Every structure is written in structure tokens, then in C-alpha cells.
Amino acid sequence: MKIIDRFVLKSFIKPFIITFLVMILFLLMQFVWKYIDDLAGRGVEWYYIAELLFYTSATVVPMALPLAVLLSSIMVLGTMGENNELAALKSSGHSLIRVMRPLIIFMVFLSLGAFLFANYVIPVANFKSETLRVNISNAKPALSIQPGVFYAGIEGYSIKVGDKYGPNQNKLREVFIYDHKGNNGNQKVIVAETGKMRVTPDERYLIINLYNGHVYEDYPTKKREDRDNHPFVKTRFKENIIRFSLSEFQQGDLRESGRKDFDMLNVNQLNLTVDSLKTVKSNRKKEFEKQMRSRYNFAQLDTMPLASVEISSNILSNFKENTQPRIVQNAMRIARSSKAYFTNASKEYAWRDIVITRHILEWWKKFSVSFSVLVLFFVGAPLGAIIRKGGMGMPVVISVVIFIVYHVGTTSFEKLGRHLVWDPVPAMWTANLILLPIGFWLTYKSATDSVIFNAELYLKPFQKIARLLGTAQKKPPK
């Protein structure tokens, strides 16, 4: 390796590592502030929180890495331009591309590493972090009951309280408990003016003492005419004690979970999942076609009692009068049933298309995010050589603006793909394809020492127009 290559790499590596770690810390703080209420005061061991933050820091790498590359490339090339180091290298016969060559090779390997990281590490990190976050947030259900919000964390119940007060926030006002443990939906409602909740010392049960309330429970009837009256039983109480089992919240190992989403799969797993989802959709379509054909089967038409031998254009007139009302009712019933079945099937197919598209988008995202490292480097490096400003001032402002534009564009195009407006391929690659020509153009302008940030260059046409107008006004009238 030549001295110039070592010099450029040494100048780049240190700022890159620092900015990369700073970006991860910044994005990690966003996660902490977003889920602070779900994590604080849950009574879980500290190493679970530390492990959650560790896995979360891995999940933010796809966003932190391109931003770190953009910022560090602007800073390094800007510092070299500000210190006249680029001018010295160019005067010795080295072009800008020759100066950037070791960084370009480094970015290629960094992009490959980013893809391997996104394919093998991030799916595991997403799975671990989401599992830990959900299990930690459910570790203390009494703390999860928030005023004015239905809490459905306890299976079979929905709990809503108007207010929580007291030193330990364990006293309640306006308590509503909906019991829907049975198979017939919500048939029992408990309403109380005040209440008090506590967890048993062994943390196996949540006990809520209710005061001054009522219990409303539907009364099952066998007669149809009685069901239309909706009978219920109302019971008044001064104090009622309800005990909820917390066996499903027993802490155990907070890392255990069997659920995997599309962002928790690598490329091979996504391929297999997409194939299986398409197979299921195809089978569902065949089943739907079979069901619809069975609904309109005319094989038994000749067995119906006809009014005459000749077939009339009025279909109903071909049957006896006493059978016509039954035929109309059956036709209406079959039509309504078929319409409802078709509507539900259409919604199911739309949902399956969205699920398949999300998996395909995730497949392409692993490649596009890795390629964005190269794209943003070709934008940042020549831009830093042009502005010739180092440090944390101007480079930070420019890199943040560019990255916001890139991130907003990527997110917007991805949403178009999620809503099936665009195909997954253009949805994930359009932002890169827009910035890549800009990066090549900036590299060309920087390599040819073109001045593109000089205000006088853009004001010259307007100055010429102003001079022409001034000359025209000074001419004496004929």
C-alpha cells in the first residue's frame, strides 16, 4: 500500500468510527424515549435492559451506517481541501479519483459487510429486541393499566379505569371490567365507582378490590322471542374482590418467543416464505373457485316442476305459482351469501398481497440499504472536496439535509410499495437511482475543479440582463 493510500485511509477511519458510534447512540436514544414508559419500573433484571439496548443498537445500523459514511466523507475531504492537502496532491500529479481510490475500495468492502450484517445479524437482532421489549412491557400488568385506555393484556378481560391515584398509583376511579372469557363474546360487565389493586407477594395474582358498583350479565334464553328483549341480570355490591391469574406473566426467560415477522428473516428464509405465501394464496383461489361453482350448479334444473313444456323468456313463469316465492327467496339468499363470500375473499386476497409485498420489499431492502453506502459516499466525498470546509459545522448541516432528503424519499417510495401502488423493485431502488447520477456529477465537477458553489457564477446571467436593461434605458429617444 502506498503512502498516499495509507494517509487517506488513516484520515478517514477515525472520523468514520466516531460518527458511526455517535449516530448509533443518537438513534438508540430515540428508541429509549419512545419506549421509556414500557421499560421503566418493570422490576426486571438490569441485564435484560442492557441486552435489549444491545440488540436495538444492532437494528439501527442500516440507518446509522449511510449517515456516518456521508458525514465522515464530507468532513474528511472538506478538511483536506481546507488544509490545502488536496491541492498539494493534485499539484503532484494525483487526480481526485486517485485520492479517493482507497476510500472507494473500502466502501465496496463496507457495502458487502453491510449486506452480510443485514442478512445474518439484523434479523436475529430484530427478533431478540422485539421479544425482549414485549416481554418486558408485559412483566408488570398492574403498571400497564393506564387511565382512559382499555387494557387487554390479561386473557379474557378488558379493563378500563378513569383515573389512578395514590402514592403507589394503585387506587382507581371509574372502573370498567369486561369479561369475555366465554365463546359468546362479552356477556358480563363490572362497573365500580372506586377500586384498589395489588399484586400478591408471590406475584401469581393481581387482586382488585371494587367498591360501590354493579355487575351486568346477559341472561341466556332458549326462546327466540325472549332473545329479542335482551334480558340481563343486574347485581349491586358495596365491595367486590376480583382475582386475575398472572401465570402467563411469570417472568421466566424473557427471551423466549416463537413469533417471527418479515424483518426477522434472512434472504433465503424470505424466499421460502414468499413461495409458501404464494402457494397458500393460489390454493385459496382454487378453493374459492370451487365454492363459487358449487353455488351455481344447474344439474338438477330439469327435476323442478315446470308449468308447461315450452320455456318462456320470463324464468319464473316456467315454474308453478306455488313454487315461485320459494325460488325467489332461495335465489336472493344465494346471491347475498355469494356476495358476502366474494367480498370476504377479495379482502383476504388483498391482505395476502400486502403480506407478500412486505416480504419482497424486505428482500430488496437488504440490497438497497447496503448499496446506499456507496451512493452516499459518492455524494459526500466530492461535495466535501468542493466546499472545502472541515470540522463539525458546515459538513454536519449539509450531510443532515442530504440524508433527510434521502430518508424521506426512501420512506415515501417504500410506502408506495407497501400500498401496492408501485412494484417492490422501483419502490426500494428509486432513491438510490436518483442520488447516484448526482454523486457521479459531483465527482466529475470536483475532479475538473468546477466551481459550483460560487454565487457570482449564478448571478452573472442576471447581471448581464441588468446591464442590458440599464443600457436600454440610458439611450436617448429618437
Q: What's the helix and strand layout?
A:
Layout: H1 3-34, H2 36-39, H3 46-59, H4 61-82, H5 85-91, H6 96-137, H7 141-144, E1 157-165, E2 171-179, E3 188-199, E4 205-218, H8 224-227, E5 232-245, H9 267-295, H10 324-387, H11 394-418, H12 424-447, H13 455-474
Antiparallel strand pairs: 1-2, 2-3, 3-4, 4-5
Helix pairs in contact: 1-3, 1-4, 1-6, 3-6, 4-10, 4-11, 6-10, 9-10, 10-11, 10-12, 11-12
Task: Outline the structure in words.
This protein is of the alpha+beta class. The protein is 61% helix and 12% strand. It has 13 helices and five strands. A five-stranded antiparallel β-sheet has the order 1-2-3-4-5, with no helix packed on it. Strand 2 and strand 3 (188-199) form a beta hairpin. The longest helix is centred in the last third of the chain and has 64 residues, at 324-387. The relative contact order is 0.10. The model is unreliable at 250-255 (pLDDT under 50).
User: Taking strands numbered 1, 2, ... along the chain, how are they ordered across the largest sheet?
Assistant: 1-2-3-4-5
Low-confidence stretches: 250-255
From the spread of the alpha carbons, the general shape counts as extended
The ordered string of helix (H) and strand (E) elements is HHHHHHHEEEEHEHHHHH
